[in-house]
Design brief:
Layout: H1 3-16, H2 22-29, H3 33-43, E1 50-53, E2 56-59, H4 62-65, H5 74-87, E3 92-93, H6 94-101, H7 105-118, E4 125-129, E5 132-136, H8 139-153, H9 161-167, H10 173-186, H11 193-211, H12 229-245, H13 251-261, H14 284-301, H15 308-326, H16 336-342, H17 344-361, H18 367-388, E6 391-396, H19 403-415, E7 419-425, E8 439-442, E9 453-455, H20 462-486, H21 488-491, E10 492-499, H22 506-519, H23 527-537, E11 541-542, E12 546-547, E13 555-572, E14 575-586, H24 590-604, H25 607-613, H26 619-629
Domain PRD: 167-271, 281-387
Organism: Robertmurraya siralis
Domain PTS EIIA type-2: 490-631
Length: 631
């Protein structure tokens, strides 16, 4: 690219100070969109000057680059490519994909290599037939992969109290939270922080709508709702809000709020509102519409959402959305742009759902309404993400007076960070119907049960807590090892695995291994120097068996591991080692890599494990040993 053309291209983007589509740039410079993409690739060859997204191209400053990760980050590019291939089962033309993602064909080819490593554990593979890319594998595996991709998108905090406060600065949500918790406690009701933030956002939005004369005015019969702790608490909270904000909670608003609080896992009433009982409180047409929408999401995106709590909230939202659309009530969502920019795949799901509603109900849905649907979808997946870190429990206890409720409350209070009670049963007859349960806590003796279980007293004693904690620790260790196993193929590379390479010094090994990482596209040319600087500060050898040389910076092009295994020890500074592990870490992949690397280091920390690994004859033998040690 000639310098004058390069300068003109950059100056044009600078003058726009906004996203420019490939088509508009092609028209201005009188070239093809493919040539525009070529210009961008050439300008970005040495450093990132122009960023790209589905919106087009934009000139960026160095400071802005780190914030624009959706398509720059290699790991995110891989997820987007996989998502596109899942949705296009017939295959995708690599040049069309290149145009859609504003990437060069060579970049996509490199990303496919990484993608195939990522999806190996799902028994999937991307194959190329001429210019067509096809994701080969079973539908069940594709569903699992799509869920994984979306869960990764919600690895950031999707909903926090600060996010609610920032979106609605005119409301003191921190004080409001304390007031609501105080009311719930008076009714002996418990809400965890995640659900509380969800309730707060719902209430702030409701209050804001009422203040702007946008109350829900549907025909409802509040007498349908049985009087219980939840209805009393909901009415008390509504009364408090009326006084605090000088508004009127009409019967429809109270009805909706009571249903929200009564959803299955919102409060510790595990026998209350579910997807099956919802039909007694909400017109059947809304329940059926919600079921149909979620079925279409499943068919289109291979994502199955079968959670009662989500279904209740989603159905209530769809019902209210249809009402607002019918009466053309405006709803402003201050989270619209944040959701759209930060969670593109979740927003895409919301757009798909909105399009289906428009088609089936013959209404128009505005962008702010789409964002509210995205919020519900994102909240569901964030909850799924958080549940991944917890042990999912079922409690079996007879419903004798308030004994069961007290048992559950005590367990929630003591283990709120480590377990999630998702089912409460009166006896063992329903155990066979339970799915995705890690642990059963029972006050009744169980016989022949395959799922891990703990027998406890109806009124918990300290020994019961200790037994539960031991089982939780054991299950957490198993989960952690399972996750590490999932990433073995992603971060280990047969081309970076060597046996019995004998060199004269640790510096020689660092030079040799960093050069290999550079040649394979993992690091920049000066990476070895950075590793040497770290090594001179203090030796990376530990346990007298293993050295883990690495850079002080997470500035690698991509994350990977270069490994040498030796039959006889070699000198590493003042130590002797038989395993040398050089790691390269890309900043964007840090979150995925950290737990994996910790698991690998835990294995290498024990001499008996090192002794087994150094006996590996080749790469496959080594990987089998690693898998064995993780069991």
């Amino acid at each position: 690219m000639k310098n004058d053309r390069r300068e003109a291209f950059i100056q044009y983007l600078a003058s726009k100070n906004d996203w420019c589509t490939a088509t508009s740039l092609a028209n201005y410079f009188k070239v093809s969109t493919r040539t525009i993409r070529k210009y961008v690739n050439e300008i970005n060859q040495d450093q990132l000057v122009i960023t790209s997204s589905p919106q087009g191209y934009q000139l960026v400053t160095k400071g802005e680059v780190s914030n624009n990760n959706d398509y720059i980050s290699p790991v995110n590019r891989v997820k987007v490519i996989l998502k596109e291939l899942i949705l296009h089962s017939e295959g995708l033309n690599i040049f069309d994909l290149s145009d859609k993602l504003f990437l060069s064909v060579s970049s996509i080819e490199n990303d496919i290599v990484q993608a195939n490593k990522m999806i190996k554990s799902y028994h999937l593979k991307i194959r190329r037939k001429k210019d067509t890319l096809i994701l080969v594998g079973g539908e069940r595996e594709k569903r699992r992969l799509m869920s994984f991709i979306i869960l990764q998108e919600t690895s950031k905090e999707f909903l926090s109290l600060k996010a609610v406060h920032d979106s609605f600065p005119h409301y003191d949500v921190f004080t409001l939270k304390d007031e609501i918790v105080s009311i719930l406690e008076k009714f002996n009701l418990y809400v965890n922080d995640y659900i509380m933030n969800n309730i707060l956002l719902h209430l702030v939005i409701t209050v804001d709508r009422i203040k702007n004369n946008n109350s829900v005015l549907q025909s409802t019969d509040i007498n349908k709702l049985k009087s219980n702790l939840e209805t009393e608490a909901a009415n008390k909270i509504a009364d408090m809000l009326e006084v605090k904000y000088d508004i009127q909670f009409n019967e429809s608003e109270r009805y909706n709020f009571i249903l929200l609080l009564s959803s299955k896992t919102t409060l510790l009433n595990y026998q209350s509102l579910t997807s099956d009982s919802l039909i007694h409180y909400v017109d059947e047409q809304y329940v059926n519409l919600s079921k149909k929408l979620l079925q279409q999401v499943h068919e289109r995106y291979f994502i199955e959402i079968n959670d009662d709590e989500f279904f209740v909230k989603f159905t209530l939202h769809i019902r209210n959305l249809l009402f607002r659309a019918k009466y053309e009530q405006m709803v402003k969502n201050p989270l619209t742009y944040e959701l759209k920019d930060s969670y593109p795949l979740i927003y895409e799901l919301a757009v798909f759902i909105s399009n289906q509603i428009q088609f089936m109900e013959n209404i128009h849905i505005k962008e702010d309404e789409i964002s509210y649907i995205a919020f519900h979808i994102g909240s569901y997946f964030e909850r799924r993400k958080k549940l991944e870190k917890k042990i999912l429990c079922a409690v079996i206890s007879p419903n004798y007076y308030d004994m069961r409720l007290q048992l559950v409350q005590k367990l929630e209070k003591r283990f709120h960070d480590s377990i999630e009670i998702i089912k409460v049963l009166s006896d063992a007859s329903e155990i066979s119907s339970l799915k995705d349960i890690d642990l059963i806590i029972s006050t009744l003796p169980l016989k022949g049960e395959q799922t891990p279980s703990v027998f406890v007293h109806p009124y918990l004693i300290e020994k019961d807590y200790e037994y539960i904690q031991l089982q939780v620790n054991k299950l957490n260790e198993q989960k952690k090892n399972q996750k590490v196993k999932q990433y073995l193929d992603l971060y280990f590379d047969e081309d970076l695995f060597m046996k019995n390479v004998y060199l004269e010094s640790d510096e020689a090994y660092i030079s040799f291994m960093s050069k290999l990482l550079y040649e394979k596209g993992y690091v920049t040319k000066d990476y070895g120097q950075s590793v040497l600087e770290r090594e001179r500060m203090s030796s990376t050898a530990f346990n007298n068996n293993v050295a883990v040389p690495h850079s002080m910076h997470m500035d690698a092009i991509k994350t990977g591991i270069c490994m040498i295994i030796l039959d006889r020890p070699v000198n590493w500074g003042k130590e002797k080692v038989q395993i040398i592990v050089m790691i390269s870490i890309n900043k964007q992949q840090r979150e995925l890599f950290s737990p994996f690397f910790e698991g690998v280091i835990n294995i290498l920390s024990e001499w008996k494990n090192v002794h087994e690994l150094i006996k590996a004859k080749d790469y496959d033998d080594f990987m089998e040993s690693m898998m064995r040690l993780l069991n």
